[in-house]
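Hey, I was hoping to borrow your eyes for a little while. There's a protein on my desk that I can't quite get my head around. The fold is given in discrete form, as structure tokens running alongside the sequence. I'd be grateful if you could look everything over and explain what you see. Here's the protein in full, and shout if anything looks odd to you:
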Amino acid sequence: MVLMPKAFLLPIDDTEESLRPIRFLTQLYADRSEISLTVHYLVPSLPPVYAEGRLSPAQVAKKKEFLRKREEAAQRACARAKQVLLESGFSEDIIHEFVQEKELTVAHHACRLADIKRVDAVLFPKQASSRLEGFLKGDHTSALLHHCLVSPIWFVDNPVDISRAVVCVSEHAASVRALDHALFMLEGTSTRIDVVHFSKRLSKKIVAEGRESSAEMDRWVADQPKEVRENYAKALDMIGQSSIEAERLRLVAAPHSGKVAADILAYCAEQRAGIVVLGHGGSEGTWGFLKSSVTKKILADFRHQAVWVNQ
């Protein structure tokens, strides 16, 4: 099978924590020949005092020192990231560096660059601990979801069991885009894929192995709202056209208790699925929807998993 190239963006700072997603990539992709990765580093913006037209000799000296230290910090961070990537089996010619001055938020810079580079995913470690002093310090989840409307985001919390992925397909169009993304990104891997719809109307789980639906599944789908039926048909079509082997796929309809986020994480724990793929969207706009969204709850509660978010 000929693998399609896949491109990633990895925002980094001066910490080892920012490099954690690299481990996940090396686990997921045994063959890394068709993967390219852009390392993105932000340098501090120039203090306004140094931007003035007329500087004293002392200020000129301080400005030169500031710029020198800034450049050295960027070189060290990028060199360390490159070293880790090379040690992890990535070839030097597919590693790219992009250094820019920080003028906006980390999320805004990363998502803007992701759109320009047309990457397949932006890699981000789960919320960095408060002790970190780099630019990735703090929780950028909401800002990333706000700005990354085109490029999917992969939130990673190592170690991750890559043996199974759960793709949640619902009545929302974003969930179908999430499935399309997962089928593409998981080609050439050994990860098994559960395409799951959670429903209050179910009292027991329905499972159809492989690419084809089952009679029981078809009867259940026929009784669902129009949006669910349409997305299920789209999902079957995508699966049929994908290069994922039939033995790695199964269609699942699972009951839920009304707490969808908790039910998704519980299902993942039961199936030992380390990858969760979500479609994020809402009629009230990104910020309003975030207040109570399934996505936000999962991103707050997931542990030792990779959560892929598509919008």
Q: What stands out?
A: The domain at 6-156 is CATH 3.40.50.620 (Rossmann fold).
